[in-house]
Specification:
single chain, 0% strand, transmembrane, mainly alpha, aspartic-type endopeptidase activity, Prepilin_IV_endopep_pep, membrane, transmembrane helix, globular
Length: 165
């Protein structure tokens, strides 16, 4: 059982899912996560979080934003992720219940592996012809991490609905 309440996950998912899909798409196509997508995710939390969470938990979730922003900036400075990825990490953090952090890390690892393998297989298959101009196909070793980050947040909320407290 996850620590996130099924009710909170149910409130968040319909609003967050389109943003996650957009992030996956734009990162594959352009190798960037737009500021508009990150801002949309933040606005969703600001508004829906007031409804979905108890007020004290809602306020504490902003500390998740701050910690993730600092961690993302450090990862970006070290070259481990792009700036858009770091910003997405920060705006996605308030949606996560701290008690689910271990589960989330495992989910992110599985998403990263699955996204990487899927991306590389499609890159070298005839399916690539469906979107021949996407930058992620010709980016060398660079990988559209937004694909895995968006999938992780969406999957976490789905699991929250199914297995939340």
């Amino acid at each position: 059982m996850l620590s996130i309440s099924a009710l909170a996950a149910t409130w968040f998912l319909p609003f967050v899912l389109p943003v996650c899909l957009y992030v996956c798409f734009t990162d594959m196509r352009e190798l960037r996560i737009t500021n508009q997508a990150n801002l949309a995710l933040l606005v969703i939390f600001v508004i829906v979080g007031l409804i979905a969470l108890p007020f004290d938990a809602y306020l504490w979730r902003y500390s998740h934003f701050a910690v993730a922003l600092v961690a993302g900036m450090a990862l970006n400075a070290g070259g481990a992720m792009g700036a858009g990825d770091a910003k997405f990490l920060a705006v996605a953090a308030p949606f996560i219940h701290l008690g689910d952090l271990r589960f989330l890390m495992a989910l992110l690892a599985a998403s990263l592996i699955g996204a990487f393998i899927t991306h590389r297989l499609i890159k070298h298959s005839p399916l690539r012809k469906l979107a021949p101009t996407w930058k992620s196909w010709t980016s060398g070793k660079r990988f559209p991490m937004g694909m895995a980050l968006g999938a992780t947040l969406a999957a976490y909320l789905v699991f929250g609905i199914l297995y939340g407290s």
